[in-house]
């Protein structure tokens, strides 16, 4: 009885582990392909897994049969000893060779297919990707615009991602669209992907790159060509939201303290018109209040909701500005207030920002949107 209980316990533990192994998210699964490259990757996963399972079953059946059929039954004589069998030697050499051909041939074909450079194809959208610790910069050279953390692409169109790094080695990976390639300092590599269905696909860094490697997410938004054209037009024009008095106060703080690293639309002192200005050391903040995340990790909408929630945007901006290290440890963004226990402090002219100044800065960033 105890023996059966022991085996039932082991079976229960094994079953639980097996069930937990199936837990995951559809938007970060290579088994939920949404593009040609992902389809090829899934085919290879299924093929290699199928071959390995077949080999495992054959070996297990033969081993079990030999264990039962030829088990020791108290005989005093040794069975006949066999030193070699040419037929068996040929058999278990040829079969693995055939299996390697079955696995290796499509693997080579799909690998070279994925490595094909479509940059010079006039129908291909080109996106320059620069990886930073711990965020992603996306530049559309044909449209002369930059954004961060979220890249928008049209459905059904090849996109040539030109990958490089500003610091250490990173790896660009969108599981649902397939393919993974390193982003290296001083070296540009191209990865061509395509989304067959509209949706938001999670991407992440797949190369250990520092303290917040696990938080280095980005999103790929696949939309119709009409929506993509509308998004490009929105990115190329100033925000359509009028600045309140508090936002104007925040704009002055932004100009004094943030503009050296971040690009945004600010009021030109000479003309009074909004113009794109700022540095590129940090992420571009153009239309930041329209994004689905802050810093690529703080979600700007309720779970299950499709639209960005302004209240969540305001909350997330405040959390991020107060203490970025609590969200992404090791990143280079300084605090705007002195936070007890934080590993980084930041001082503006006259000292750290007061709560009122922080609210004003958040109000200005909330106006960086089109609607």
Describe this entry's structure for a reader.
This protein has helices at residues 2-21, 36-69, 86-114, 225-235, 245-257, 310-322, 324-327, 355-366; strands at 125-132, 135-140, 145-148, 150-154, 159-165, 170-173, 180-183, 189-193, 199-205, 217-223, 263-267, 274-278, 293-294, 298-299. It is an alpha+beta fold and 371 residues long. It has eight helices and 14 strands. The longest helix is centred in the N-terminal third of the chain and has 34 residues, at 36-69. It folds into two domains: 25-65 and 85-236, Immunoglobulin-like (Sandwich), CATH 2.60.40; 245-367, Cupredoxins -  blue copper proteins (Immunoglobulin-like), CATH 2.60.40.420. It starts with a helix and ends in a 5-residue tail after the last helix. Residues 22-118 form the Cytochrome oxidase subunit II transmembrane region profile domain. The chain crosses the membrane at residues 41-68, 89-112. Its EC number is 7.1.1.9. Its main location: membrane.
Write a brief structural summary.
The protein folds into two domains: 25-65 and 85-236, Immunoglobulin-like (Sandwich), CATH 2.60.40.420; 245-367, Cupredoxins -  blue copper proteins (Immunoglobulin-like, Sandwich), CATH 2.60.40. Helices cover 37% and strands 19% of the residues. The chain has eight helices and 14 strands.
Question: What layout of secondary structure does this protein have?
Answer:
Blueprint: H1 2-21, H2 36-69, H3 86-114, E1 125-132, E2 135-140, E3 145-148, E4 150-154, E5 159-165, E6 170-173, E7 180-183, E8 189-193, E9 199-205, E10 217-223, H4 225-235, H5 245-257, E11 263-267, E12 274-278, E13 293-294, E14 298-299, H6 310-322, H7 324-327, H8 355-366
Parallel strand pairs: 1-5, 4-10
Antiparallel strand pairs: 1-2, 2-3, 5-8, 6-7, 6-9, 9-10, 11-12, 13-14
Helix pairs in contact: 2-3, 5-8, 6-8
Subcellular location: Cell membrane; Membrane
Domain Cytochrome c: 245-369
Family: Belongs to the cytochrome c oxidase subunit 2 family.
């Amino acid at each position: 009885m105890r023996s059966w209980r022991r085996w039932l316990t082991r079976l229960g533990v094994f079953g639980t582990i097996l069930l937990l192994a199936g837990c995951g998210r559809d938007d970060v699964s290579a088994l939920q392909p949404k593009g040609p490259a992902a389809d090829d990757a899934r085919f290879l996963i299924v093929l290699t897994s199928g071959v390995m399972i077949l080999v495992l079953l054959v070996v297990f059946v033969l081993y079990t049969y030999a264990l039962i059929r030829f088990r020791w039954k108290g005989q005093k004589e040794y069975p006949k000893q066999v030193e070699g069998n040419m037929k068996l030697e040929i058999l278990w050499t040829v079969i693995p060779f055939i299996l390697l051909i079955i696995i290796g041939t499509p693997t080579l074909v799909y690998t070279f297919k994925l490595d094909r450079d479509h940059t010079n194809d006039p129908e291909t959208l080109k996106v320059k990707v620069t990886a930073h610790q711990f965020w992603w910069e996306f530049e559309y050279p044909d449209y002369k615009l930059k954004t961060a953390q979220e890249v928008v692409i049209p459905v059904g169109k090849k996109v040539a991602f030109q990958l490089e790094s500003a610091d250490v080695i990173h790896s660009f990976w969108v599981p649902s669209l397939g393919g993974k390639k390193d982003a290296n300092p001083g070296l540009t590599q191209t990865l061509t992907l395509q989304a067959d269905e509209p949706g938001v696909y999670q991407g992440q860094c797949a190369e250990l790159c520092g303290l917040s490697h696990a938080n280095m997410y980005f999103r790929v938004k696949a939309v119709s060509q009409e929506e993509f054209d509308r998004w490009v037009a929105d990115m190329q024009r100033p925000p359509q939201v009028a600045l309140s008095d508090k936002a104007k106060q925040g704009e002055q703080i932004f100009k004094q303290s943030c503009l050296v690293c971040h690009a945004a639309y600010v009021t030109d002192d000479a003309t009074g018109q909004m113009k794109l200005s700022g540095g590129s050391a940090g992420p571009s903040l153009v239309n930041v209040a329209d994004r689905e995340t802050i810093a690529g990790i703080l979600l700007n909408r309720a779970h299950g909701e499709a639209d960005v929630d302004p209240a969540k945007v305001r909350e997330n901006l405040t959390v991020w500005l107060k203490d970025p290290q609590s969200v992404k440890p090791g990143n280079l963004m300084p605090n705007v207030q002195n936070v007890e226990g934080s590993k980084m402090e930041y001082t503006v002219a006259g000292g750290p920002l007061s709560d009122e100044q922080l609210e004003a800065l958040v109000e200005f960033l909330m106006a960086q949107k089109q609607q």
